Amino acid sequence: MTPWARILILCSAAFLSGCASQTPRVAPAQQLFHDQLFQPPTAPIDTASVFALTPEMRDYVKHELGTPGPGRDVRRMLFDALYRRDKLQLEYDAALTRTASETFAARSGNCLSLAIMTAALARELKMPVIFQQVQIDEVWSRAGSLYFASNHVNLSLGRPLAGQNPYLLTAVDVANSLTVDFIPIPPQARENARPLTEKTVLAMYLNNRAAELLSAGQVDDAYWAARQAAEADPLFINAYNTLGVIYQHHGDQPQAEAALRYAQSQLPDNTIYLSNLAQTLESANKLDEAAVLRARLARLEPYPPFYFFVQGQEAMKLGDYARARTLFERELDRVPDYHELHFWLAVANYQLGNLRAADRHMALAMENSTTRGDHDVYSAKLDHLRAYAAQLRAK
User: Fold this and answer.
1) Residues 6+ apart with CB under 8 A from 142
2) What is the 3-state secondary structure (H, E, C) of the chain?
3) Which spans of this chain does UniProt mark as TPR repeats (predicted)?
4) Res 37: pLDDT
5) How many Cβ atoms are within 10 Å of 288's Cβ, its own excluded?
6) Prior bond to 3 cis, omega within 30?
7) Which residues contact 175 (CB under 8 A, 6 or more apart)?
8) How far is the C-alpha of 163 from the C-alpha of 173, rounded, in Å?
């Protein structure tokens, strides 16, 4: 991939597919944290607030869902409320990872936010919940020089077994549970989902916030969120990858190298950790060792995410729109639903005078957008494109 991109893992990723069973035996030492390099956080994250309910949420549970009782399947009532447009009216929005109360107030969130909110409501109803990591391929996105790999989490609403504590994971009647998911996933992936502890889910939330803060240029706040993620679950390796990338952005190359070496030592074939570590070694002029990692990366992943996309953008800059279109189409073959690829295919086709294809891809960019902001941008561009096409037909 040229230029080399720093890679973070977002949206409920516990480990990358194929690596989930490679759990480290011991937690790393505290020397991976370097608080003295960063300013105090502008707004410390209160981890107790992540699952906390507001009075409005409790009122909703009381008046809209009721209380458990004979003949009442409150799980089904909550399940229906999550999906029906005339109830909670939830909307998927990947722009920000929110707490339970923030998600409820906004009526929107990414998969992790929606799972956290659902768990909070379920527990108010005395329902046991099981968070699950879903075994599907990670979804890639980007913001400037940062690339994000997002995996997926959902949860199941269970019934407590007779005489058991309803909050214990082992006390759930799994056979009769209801799976809550906010994006479609293959049945086999749902069957192979792995349970997650609440401390891991909390670490995921904090890791997401760290990545989002870094993307917004708030490097100091990003550090403290990533540090809290590692403290919430010291065996959640993605937090150390995020710490390494934050150190990179802050200009702390030795600290970045240490954090990324630890992450890579735990999951040696993880291409994200390898790529970030190789980039850090290159920045430190350790070119021989970096070259070894690059060669290993090339064997593990000959065409990394966005490989053809980056080449297509270079072709666009050179005005070679036909080549750009071909390269964007190759990338689209690998990630057919990624909105930005459809957008650039629309632009390339527009430059080639193929307005029908440009219209189709701009519409697909809008349909596949994962944030309200992107949806509005693509909608406006689609309107402009159609107005221009109408003008041409009128001539």
Assistant:
1) 5, 148, 306, 340
2) CCCCCEEEEECCCCCCCCCCCCCCCCCCCHHHCCHHHCCCCCCCCCHHHCCCCCHHHHHHHHHHHCCCECCECHHHHHHHHHHCCCCCCCEECCCCCCCHHHHHHHCEECHHHHHHHHHHHHHHCCCCEEEEEEEEEEEEEEECCEEEEEEEEEEEECCECCCCCCCCHHHECHHHCEEECCCCCCHHHHHCCEEECHHHHHHHHHHHHHHHHHHCCCHHHHHHHHHHHHHHCCCCCHHHHHHHHHHHHHCCHHHHHHHHHHHHHHCCCCHHHHHHHHHHHHHCCCHHHHHHHHHHHHHHCCCCCCHHHHHHHHHHHCCCHHHHHHHHHHHHHHCCCCHHHHHHHHHHHHHCCCHHHHHHHHHHHHHHCCCHHHHHHHHHHHHHHHHHHHHHHHC
3) 237-270
4) 97
5) 8
6) yes
7) none
8) 12
Reading the block at residue 235, the tokens are 């065996």
| pLDDT (0 to 100) of residue 8 | 54
Rounded distance between C-alpha atoms, residue 202 and residue 291, angstroms: 36
* Alpha-carbon separation of residue 350 from 71, 117, 356 (angstroms): 60, 42, 9
Could you tell me the sign of the dihedral formed by the alpha carbons of 19, 25, 29, 30, in that order? positive
Residue given tokens 């390898």 in the structure block: 274
Residue with tokens 């890579």: 264
| Residue type present at position 244 | G
CA distances from 14 to 195, 342, 352 (A): 11, 29, 43
Angle between helices 372-394 and 339-351 (to 10 degrees): 20
Q: Beta-carbon neighbour count of residue 374 at 10 Å?
A: 19
Q: What is the largest CA-CA distance in the chain?
A: 78
Cα separation, 357 vs 233, whole angstroms: 48
Q: Which residues contact 103 (CB under 8 A, 6 or more apart)?
A: 109, 113, 114, 116, 117
What is the average per-residue pLDDT within 324-349?
92
Q: Indicate whether 7 pLDDT > 60.
A: no
pTM of the model: 0.81
pLDDT tens digits, residue range 307-319?
A: 899 999 999 999 9
Q: Each residue of 258-313: pLDDT tens digit?
A: 999 999 999 999 999 999 999 999 999 999 999 999 999 999 999 888 889 999 99
